[in-house]
Amino acid sequence: MTELSTHSDTVDHVLPFRLDGHNINGRVVQLNDLATQVITRHDYPEAVNRLLGEALVLVAMLGTMLKFDGRFILQLHGKGAVSTLMVDYAPDGDGVGEMRGFAQFDEAAVHQALKDEIPPIALLGDGSHMAFTVDQGADMERYQGIVPLEGETLAEAALEYFQRSEQIATTLKLAAAPLLLAGGKVEWRAGGIVVQQTATTGGIELPPEGDPDYIDEEWNRLKILLETTQDSELLDGEIDPQTLAFRLFHEEGVRVFDTRPLRFACPCSRERVQNMLQGLPDTDQNEMQSQETIEINCDFCNEQYVFSPQEAFVAAP
Ligand SMILES: [Zn+2]
């Protein structure tokens, strides 16, 4: 288990930064309370929690890069021990990004797979895929990018996505780990860092003075710098994100911007669930009418909503 500081704050945020000399943008993500809130609402095996924690970091990185008012969704789907992992992000209108997530899996199959010491991403099995969706509401077209889930880690799979779909030179690190507190209490920490060539340069910059090796050398040097970051640094709530960015890139002319706050939130409600039930086909509604109670659990936050058939289908939502 990663050694983590036990005295950490509960701040959740993304710090955007820029390496002026290189036309490169970057982000540091630190999730403390948010990761704990999302993960401890469920009772998943640790390997699934790590994957969920890393997925939260990836979505925080990408969601805060988009300029839109809708929901940004990451879905992993497979036919392995884990069948679905989903995380989403939506700005709340006051500059705070709201996030949530869940996984669906076969517990026995997860434990069997882990005995074989496969990497967590392989829990999704062969032929799995990753989908990014931007949902801007019913009147707007949904944008979706789907790529095969490749690589040994979620970070590698995400890099594949950037190469195939975005063609923007990108490198990133993701980390998530449990933090054991006195009294057996468990919190989670998740963090990451990404650097990306800016799209305005068309992804890859043209070599100056006709030197074809120029950019590759610079880019490789930055990649190596980023790879020197330890998971423990990414997960340490005592290191503020500015310090982390300066520590890595102080020789590159790093400029930091305002941090973007994040928090756990799930927009589910009794009214929304009732609306959903009343929108079901008649056959489903008739079947539920014969039940004593109707229990609906929110996949994302695990909140349970209990209705009598009378409440569910007759009363106005
Ligand atoms: Zn919910």
Task: Give an account of the 3D structure.
This protein is an alpha+beta fold and 317 residues long. The chain has two domains: 13-264, Hsp33 domain, CATH 3.55.30.10; 270-314, Alpha-Beta Complex (CBS domain Like), CATH 3.90.1280.10. It is 31% helix and 29% strand. It has ten helices and 13 strands. The chain has helices at residues 33-40, 46-63, 107-115, 154-166, 214-227, 231-234, 241-249, 270-278, 282-289, 309-314; strands at residues 13-19, 24-31, 71-77, 82-91, 97-105, 129-135, 143-148, 170-180, 186-197, 254-256, 260-264, 294-297, 304-307. Strands 1, 2, 3, 4, 5, 6, 7, 8, 9, 10 and 11 form an eleven-stranded mixed sheet that branches. Strands 12-13 form a two-stranded antiparallel sheet. It starts with 12 loop residues before the first strand and ends with a helix. The protein binds zinc ion (ZN).
The total count of strands amounts to: 13
Ligand types: zinc ion
CATH-defined topology of the largest domain? Hsp33 domain
What percentage of amino acids are in beta strands? 25-35%
Main sheet record? 11 strands, mixed
Features:
single chain; 317 residues; alpha+beta; Hsp33 domain; 2 domains; eleven-stranded mixed sheet; two-stranded antiparallel ribbon; disordered N terminus; binds zinc ion
Question: TL;DR?
Answer:
By secondary structure, this protein is an alpha+beta fold. 31% of the residues lie in helices and 29% in strands.
What's the topology here?
Elements: E1 13-19, E2 24-31, H1 33-40, H2 46-63, E3 71-77, E4 82-91, E5 97-105, H3 107-115, E6 129-135, E7 143-148, H4 154-166, E8 170-180, E9 186-197, H5 214-227, H6 231-234, H7 241-249, E10 254-256, E11 260-264, H8 270-278, H9 282-289, E12 294-297, E13 304-307, H10 309-314
Parallel strand pairs: 5-11
Antiparallel strand pairs: 1-2, 1-10, 1-11, 2-9, 3-4, 3-6, 4-5, 6-7, 8-9, 12-13
Bound molecules: zinc ion.
